Amino acid sequence: MGVAKYIKDERGAIKTVTYQSGINVKPVYGPEDLEKAGFKYEKDLGAPGEYPFTRSIHPQSYRSRAWTTRQYTGFGTPEETNERFKLMIANGQNGLNVAFDLPTQMGYDSDHPLAQGEVGRVGMAIDSLKDFETAFAGIPLDRIGSGLTINAVATIMMAMYQATAEKFGYSKDQISTTPQNDILKEMIGRGAWIFPVEHGVRLVGDSIEYAVKELPKSNPVSICGYHIRESGANPAQEIAYAFEIAKAYIDNVTQRGILPEEFVGRFSFNFNVYGNLWEQIAKFRAARKLWAKMLKNEYGVTDKKKLFLRGLFGGGGSGLTKEQPENNIMRGAYYALGAALSGAQTTALCSFDEAYTIPTPRSALLSLRTLEMLMDEVGLRDTVDPLAGSYFIETLTLEMEEKILEEMQEVQKMGGMTKCISEGVIQRKVSRQAYEYEKGLQSGEYRKVGLNPEASDQTAEKTEAGAVELHEYNEDWAKKSKANLKALRATRNDKDVSDSLKALEKAAKGSDNVMPHLVKCCHAYATVGEMAGVFRQAFGEWNEPEFY
Amino acid sequence: METKNKIRVLIAKPGLDGHDKGAKIVALALRDAGMEVIYSGLHQTLDQIMQTATQEAVDVIGLSIMSGAHLPICEKLIAMMKAQEIDDIRLTVGGVIPYQDIPKLKEMGVAAVFPGGTSFEDITFGMNKLFE
Fold first, then answer.
1. Model confidence at A95, in pLDDT bands (50, 70, 90)?
2. How far is the C-alpha of A397 from the C-alpha of A406, rounded, in Å?
3. In this structure, is residue A272 part of a structural domain?
4. B88 lies in which domain range?
5. Does B81 reside within a domain?
6. B55 at the A interface (CB within 8 A)?
7. What is the CATH number of the domain that holds A247?
8. Is residue B129 part of a domain?
9. Which of A88, A496, A528, B5 stands the most exposed, by the fewest C-beta atoms within 10 Å?
10. How far apart are CA A374 and CA A50, in angstroms?
11. Cis amide leading into A59 (omega within 30)
12. What is the pTM of this model?
């Protein structure tokens, strides 16, 4: 019965239902519930496309356009990633969602000792502009937008993307990229951080400022409640922490004399979809409303379009089980249904084999087909926000709104998100919750089909062998990347490289925006490791706080 | 057989991967089970892990590996332990470990393997069993 807490009587009938966000669900809802909650159509919902956008940010939603599908893709060398990009585009995918290997995410070149065994393993290996030129060869960068899943060195990849487009003859105002670029969430979960908190936030600020001035179609930051949820936050905290992170970035940019109105429209979000279906739907509806209200009331944003909560709602990794992996195919379909009922603009779905391995082409396509079925076969495009007006959903949406606000207020009371993360408060809280949840799963307090208590090790072993084709790591990727690097270092113009890196260092140590300098470094074929090395030297590295 | 009094464990995250939920919740579970648990933090080199393990005089290292690099990492760490003639620290590993890799890890000298999904009870039992 999913991930809510159910208490049953001796006959097996459900007595109480409690969602992870702490909301108790009644057996029946009626008009009296809406009355009690003070529900008013104009105030709480409004028409789709109208403030506060609870129902949808677009008046016609999927009627006018189906969602954008962006499966997370990338592994091995840029050549292989390029092939997979083309496969996904040929099969109807209309945006890219690029995975980088860990050395790239952590700002090391493929020949760095710490990169050993990791080159190309969990994403593609990028050392210089040469690799981006290969990875994006033949991709129409004026039509296909690219999400870049990278954070600590997102500024470098954004510059790399611009430099690549310029090499291919596109202008920087034609291209659309969405680097993930959310360093604060990396410090809560996922862990691909490098620099201390204040420098990390400054780089995010630099990229936002640059995008406002130079990259009109790009979205410089995608704030990820997703990974915070994966790390143990409940759905209300997922939204609350993401919004508090957004506020930390907004504050950094407004300090530069730029008004929120000028840039908040470029923020996008990445939220998770696993868990109880109704709680997810209420979460997204409440989140759209709260974001719009917050920007309007606290930041004085007036342009309607800039109040939209845009983003990728998808994934669902933590909902998948390693046991009986084929069950994840169905599980993923229900998560995707939740995303569609929530009006997700852009989506992606974890593939059933992701508890083991990087998806094979077969499993990645299966996810894409699952998403297509919802739009083309099942009827999710028929009408906007089909659950609106449900006594249950509207009551739940209001309760969710309240829970999210409570969590946001708690962060504010402790001095805001930057301070909470520096001190480790949020990290300790979500780790503790993850532990309690896991204990609940293991004791049977929470139920997951195929996991507890009926599954035994033997069945798991059998099904795993039959169902999952492992994505093999290829040692040749590292050899090839290293050889390419060696050739690059021998052929590039050393003076251009050292001049551009020196200028970057000056900007990093001072207060100039680093972005234009990074673009020049990329054009000079400076490596990711060299550029990140400049930052490492200028900023130092973060010491994570104790987690106990 | 007598069980050792308080097992000292170093839960360590080697390499660049930052997915630390598993490491943290296992650290909490082993602590609740009465062990003394030290958590290394993220992005540790194998040298750093060995140094912490010897300085803290732990009985067992629990590596948490999600990136798929468990075979080369364990191989290297075991070679380092042999070179430094450390034979009183057991090596265990958990994370995203395909079942077919378990025999390979055991053969290398890994004392116990706890793939994702192993219950806290089984991990605690497995750890205790190493010292019976």
1. confident
2. 14
3. yes
4. 1-96
5. yes
6. no
7. 3.20.20.240
8. no
9. B5
10. 25
11. no
12. 0.94
The vertex-A536 CA angle with A531 and A537, nearest 5°, equals 100
* pLDDT per position as a tens digit, A431-456: 999 999 999 999 988 888 987 555 44
Query: Is residue B31 a part of any domain in this protein?
Result: yes
* Model pLDDT, residue B3: 52
User: Is residue B3 packed enough to be buried (19+ CB in 10 Å), middle (13-18) or exposed (0-12)?
Assistant: exposed
Q: Which residues in A lie closer than 8 A to residue B115 (C-beta atoms)? A: 322
Which chain A residue has the Cα nearest residue B13? A191
A439-460 CB burial, b ≥16 within 10 A, e <16 = bebbeeebbbebbbeebeeeeb
**Three-state DSSP state, A22:** coil
**Residue B32 within a domain:** yes
Residue at A116 is within a domain: no
Count other C-beta atoms under 10 Å from residue A496's C-beta: 15
Q: What is the pLDDT of residues A175-210, one digit of tens each?
A: 999 999 999 999 999 999 999 999 999 999 999 999
The CATH code of the domain that includes B27 is 3.40.50.280
How many structural domains compose chain B? 1
Q: Name B12's bridge partners.
A: B63
Indicate the helix (H) or strand (E) that contains A97. Answer: strand A95-99
Helix (H) or strand (E) holding B55: helix B46-55
Which residues, 6+ apart, have CB-to-CB distance to A542 below 8 Å?
A187, A193, A194, A195, A196, A197, A200
Task: Indicate the helix (H) or strand (E) that contains A192.
Answer: none
The verdict on B99 touching A (C-beta cutoff 8 Å) is yes
Would you say residue A1 has pLDDT above 60? no
Domains: count for chain A: 1
Range of the domain at A371: 6-66+176-196+221-467
Nearest residue on chain B to A100, judged by CA atoms?
Answer: B17
Q: What are the counts of helices (DSSP H) followed by strands (DSSP E) for chain A?
A: 21, 12
Name the closest residue on chain B to residue A103, using Cα atoms: B16
Q: Residues of B with CB below 8 A from A473's CB?
A: 68-69
Whose structure tokens read 């009296």? A32
Q: Which residues contact A226 (CB under 8 A, 6 or more apart)?
A: A185, A238, A270, A271, A272, A315
Which chain A residues are Cβ-neighbours of B20 within 8 angstroms?
A: 189, 191
DSSP characters for A109-145? -TTSGGGTTTTTSSSB---SHHHHHHHTTT--TTTSE
